Each structure stands twice: as C-alpha cells, then as structure tokens.
Amino acid sequence: MDTQHDNATEKFRQMTEEPIRPLILSLAAPSIASNLVTSLYNLCDTFFVGSLGTSAEGAIGISFVVMTAIQAVGFGMGQGTGNAISRYLGARQRERACVMATNGLVWTLAIGALIALVGNVLIEPICRLAGSTETILPYAKTFVGIILLGAPFMCSSLMLNMQLRFEGEALHSMIAIVTGALLNIALEPLLIYGAGLGIAGSAIATVVCQFVSFSILVWQIQRVGITPLSPKWLRRPTRSALRTIVNGGLPSFVRQCMLGVATTLLNGAARPFGDAAIAALAVVQRIAGIGNYVQIGIGQGFQPVIGYNFGARIYGRIREGYRFSVGTAFVAVALMGVFSFAFAPQLVGLFSSDPEVIGIGTLALRVESVTLPITGTAMITNFLLQTMGRMWRATVLGACRLGLVLGPVVLVLPPLLGLLGVQLAQPVTDVITFLVALPMAASALRDLARGEHEAGAGKGGLAEGEREAC
C-alpha cells in the first residue's frame, strides 16, 4: 500500500476509536491557533488603517461586505467538498474523496475569478450598498478594488484549508494560515508607511499573503494530504457532485453571505450617526471576532469527527462530541467575555484615538460580551446539522444570527432607541438565535440516538439519511 493509503487507514482508526474529548481538543487546537492568528491580523489591520483617520477606518467596515462574499465561496466550497471527503473516507471510499478534492479546487478558482471581474466592474455601487458615506467612499473603493483582485486565491485558500481540516490534518492547515497571517502583519506597515501607499498598502499586503497561504496549502496537500490533487481526478461537473457540494456547503455559503447582509444592515443603521459610529462597529466586530474564532475552531475540530463517524455509522461518538464541544466553547468564550467587558474602553482605544469612536464602541462591546458565549451553541449545532447533511435546517440556523433575525431587529430597535438600538442589535439577535438553535439541536441528537439504537439492532441506522447526505 502507498503512504497516503496508509495515512488514510490510520486516520480512520484515529477518528473512530480514539477517546473523543482529547481527539476533539487535538483537532481544535491548530484550528483555534490559526483562527486567533487571523484575528490578530484583523486587529493589526484595523490598528494600522485606523492611524490613517476615521474615514479610512470606516472603509474597513465597508470592506467586510466584499470579504464575506469571498469567504462565502471559500467556506461554501470548502464545507461542501470537505463534508463529502470526510464521509467518503469514513465509508472507506478514498477515490471518490480524491475526485471531490481536485474538482473542488478547479471550480473554486473559476468562481473566484468571476467575483474579481464582476466586483471591480460594480465597485462603487457595492461600496455604497455596503453603507459607505461620501467621505469613506474613496478609501473603500481603493481597498476593495485591490482585495477583489486576490479573490481567486483567497477563495481557494479557504477551500483547501477546510479540506485539510476535514481530513483531520488541522495542524498542516494551521501552518499555511499562520504563515500568511504573520507575513501580513509584518508586510502591512512596510507598505502603508514605508512605501507610502496608505490604505492601498494594507490591501496589497492582504492579497500577497493570501497567495502565499494558497501556495503552502497546495504543497501541504500534495505532501501529507490523504486526497492529493491531480489532473487524473478531474471530472466534468455532474448533477450528483453538485448536489453533494450544495448539501454540505450551502449552509456555510448562506451564513457568510448573511454576514455581509449583517454588516450592511448595521452600517446602514449606523450611517445617520456618522463615520464614528461605522468605525466603532468595525472595531467591535474585530474584537468580538476573537471569541467567534475560538468557537469556530472548536467546531472545526469537531467536524471531521462528525464526518468520519457519520460515514462509519458510529453515532454515539457524535453525540458525546457535541456535548463536549458546546460546553467547552461556552466556558472558553465566557472567560473572554469577562475580560472584554471589564476592559472595553481600553480595547477600543487601542484602535482609535477618537473619543466618539471609543464611547460608541465601549457600550457595543460590553453588551456583545454578555451574549457572545451562548452563540457557540448555535454555531456548533450548525456544524453538526451541516456535516450530517441536514442542509435546510443548517441553512436556516446559520442565517438567523446574521440576517433572518438581525434584519427585523435592525428595522425595529434603531428607530425606537436611536444609536443605542444599533449597539443592542447584535446581542438581541444572539439571544433569539440561541433559542432557535435549542430545538434543532435536540432533534438532531434524537436522530443520532435512534440511529445508534437501530445500528445496534442491525437495522442500518440512518442509512437513508446518509445516502441523501453523500
């Protein structure tokens, strides 16, 4: 047997036999580390650009909309192909996994190129739709236009990162992401200040470093991946393959698109209160993002365990892993929330010297620190439903926090409470989304318990649902 086949056999044993709690932690640790480094890059980006003025800092908030569109494709394709890959490997169908990996990369590069073209043609309407004021617009057009040029590699980097994680190789994906992020942190001040490029320097640094991460990921997949990329695995798109990707990836795609919707709604609600309000929300999003990244990392550590064991029909391990992941995410983010609540003025002040930005951002960060720990329940439930192939439930839940619930909340609270309504919009949405997630989680866990019982009785468990998912 070749080395990669041996690796696949060992990975199957690890995912289906090793103690579940240390396994999830070992898989989550590299994901959390890479997510935190990415968050550090985001904070540094906000710090460096913020030194150029409040309007430039507001442009970062506007760029969230375009960044989330790029991420929507990357995460959607990564989750769609990665979910299928982990289930195929769990079912011992490695060739199907290899076909999915190679074709996923080709299709993602093509979609990223289309985003780059269309985005630059429509750049001004996109920036205005995202909530840009007249003073922010020049900065936003410069930053977003350059970012769009890197869309093919940014989408593909996210997709390959997800594929490696679903194979259970989170450590290797971490190396690529951390290398790119650290290089970005070093390169950004050189281009912004040293080369005198201003906000354009920040965007150029981002695109260059995303290409570096992409190149490292391709090399890592060829070196250690269980599903190496090769022209021999290329296939013409089929309805079955596209349906598989959509089933696994649509919830992530919608969730990321809704993040763009959320940013647009919040920026639009904040626009009547001036550039300082938009800049404050951008800072708070970056700081609160640290907690979100920890939760996402834990969920990403849990996902390959779901996929392998769902494919192998070992449902008890999934239920045990879910309870552990939700509890761990809550405790970790609650501790972070205590710190961000206590030191909110100092944290916001790190990224802006504008007293108005600090004042608006302090209250927004404090109320979000209170509700952020419960968002892990919805996030990890979403990962569970998605990897099980419960596409529609996962899509609805993923859209709640970032659009389906936030939209009505933004329409109601700011007209009633003014700026306070803008600051309370996300925390109120978090509470409602948590309440929506609870019955969905209970239903999924009941399905797994029933499947475990039927598998033990020799009835095949959730075979029909698995066929739909795969």
Report on the architecture of this protein.
The protein starts with a helix and ends with a helix. With 470 residues, it is mainly alpha-helical. The longest helix has 38 residues, at 275-312. It has helices at residues 3-17, 20-50, 54-90, 94-121, 123-129, 137-149, 151-166, 170-194, 199-224, 239-270, 275-312, 315-342, 344-349, 355-371, 375-387, 391-404, 406-417, 419-456, 463-469. It contains 19 helices and no strands. Helix 11 (275-312) packs antiparallel against helix 12 (315-342).
Spell out the key features of this protein.
about 85% helix; mainly alpha; 19 helices; single chain; about 475 residues
Please give the structural blueprint.
Elements: H1 3-17, H2 20-50, H3 54-90, H4 94-121, H5 123-129, H6 137-149, H7 151-166, H8 170-194, H9 199-224, H10 239-270, H11 275-312, H12 315-342, H13 344-349, H14 355-371, H15 375-387, H16 391-404, H17 406-417, H18 419-456, H19 463-469
Helix pairs in contact: 2-8, 2-11, 3-4, 3-6, 3-7, 3-10, 3-11, 4-6, 4-7, 5-6, 6-9, 7-8, 7-9, 8-9, 10-16, 10-17, 11-12, 11-14, 11-15, 12-14, 12-15, 12-18, 14-18, 15-16, 15-18, 16-18, 17-18
Beta-strand residue fraction: under 5%
Shape: globular
Helix fraction bin: over 70%
Number of strands: 0
Uncertain stretches of 5 or more adjacent residues: 463-470
H-E string: HHHHHHHHHHHHHHHHHHH
SS element count, helices: 19
Mean pLDDT score: 84
Biggest β-sheet: count, sense, barrel? none
Structural class: mainly alpha
Spatial extent as radius of gyration: 22 Å
N/C terminus separation: 26 Å
